[in-house]
Every structure is written in structure tokens, then in C-alpha cells.
Amino acid sequence: MKKIAAEGILTCLQDAIDSLNKGEGLGKIIEEWSFVPRVVEELNKLDTAEESSNSTSKKDIYHQAIVCKRIYEFEVGNLKDDTSDKNKRPKIEKGKETKNYDSDDTIEMTEDEVKEAFDSVASSIVK
Fold first, then answer.
1. What is the mean pLDDT of residues 98-117?
2. Residue 66: is its pLDDT beyond 70?
3. In which domain of life is the source organism classified (predicted)?
């Protein structure tokens, strides 16, 4: 899930980079995307602030966008694929709802307690 979200951010960043490369602002990107990643919003703030005060040039904003994309690409490369995560705990279905069970919540029982619990369950089934 994280990897998919990160790839969406990268796609939006690439659209922003393409728009900046064409000399267009980021307004069109923000209008087209229903969800705009914060990094693109921040780049847009720099872009719109630049128009009023010449604090950051379009070229600088373009380069910042490229640097941000490289950072995200690096982080995506470091994300583990959720499907191959060995630490992922299995879901156990009970009825219609699915619950996650954490092995840290496991109650430790002595051998006698286990036998007593087994006998209790077995006697209710055998009746």
C-alpha cells in the first residue's frame, strides 16, 4: 500500500516537473489531480510566491522538483514489498469480520493449563 501511494506521489511530481519544464505553472496540475501531494503543494507555493517577489526562479523550482523526485525514488526503492514482508502477521477470519492477531498478545500457559483448557474444550465437544 505504501509503495502504491509513493508511486502516485512520484507520478504527480513527474507531472509537476513536466509542467515546470514547459514553463507552465503548477496550477494546472493542482486542478487535474484530485489529491495533490504536499511536496507539489509546497513547490506551488514557491512558484506562486516567485511571481510576486522574485525570491525563487522558475529554474530553481524546477531543480527543486527534480531533487524531491530523486528523494522519493530513493525512498520507494527502500520500501519493502508488502506482499513479501516476512514480519506480516496473518489475518484470521471469524465470521464476516477480519481481525489481526498479534503474537505479542499471546498468553503464555503452563503445560497443566494447556491440558486443562484442552480437556475443557474436548469435553464440551464430545457431549
1. 68
2. yes
3. Eukaryota
Question: What is the chain's alpha carbon radius of gyration, rounded to the nearest angstrom?
Answer: 26
What's the burial of 84, exposed, middle or buried (CB within 10 Å: 0-12/13-18/19+)?
exposed
- The number of residues making up the chain comes to 127
- As a 3-state breakdown, the chain gives helix, strand, coil percent values, each rounded to 5, of 65, 5, 25
Strand ranges (DSSP E) for 6-112?
91-94, 97-100
Higher pLDDT residue, 53 or 79? Answer: 79
User: Is 56:46 a contact under the CB 8 Å cutoff?
Assistant: yes
Domain boundaries, the chain: 1-127
Q: What tens digit of pLDDT does each residue of 49-62 get?
A: 755 555 567 888 88
C-alpha cell of 112? 497443566
Asked if the model's pLDDT at residue 122 lies above 60, the reply is yes
- d(CA 127, CA 123) in angstroms, rounded, equals 6
Rounded CA separation 82/80 (Å): 6
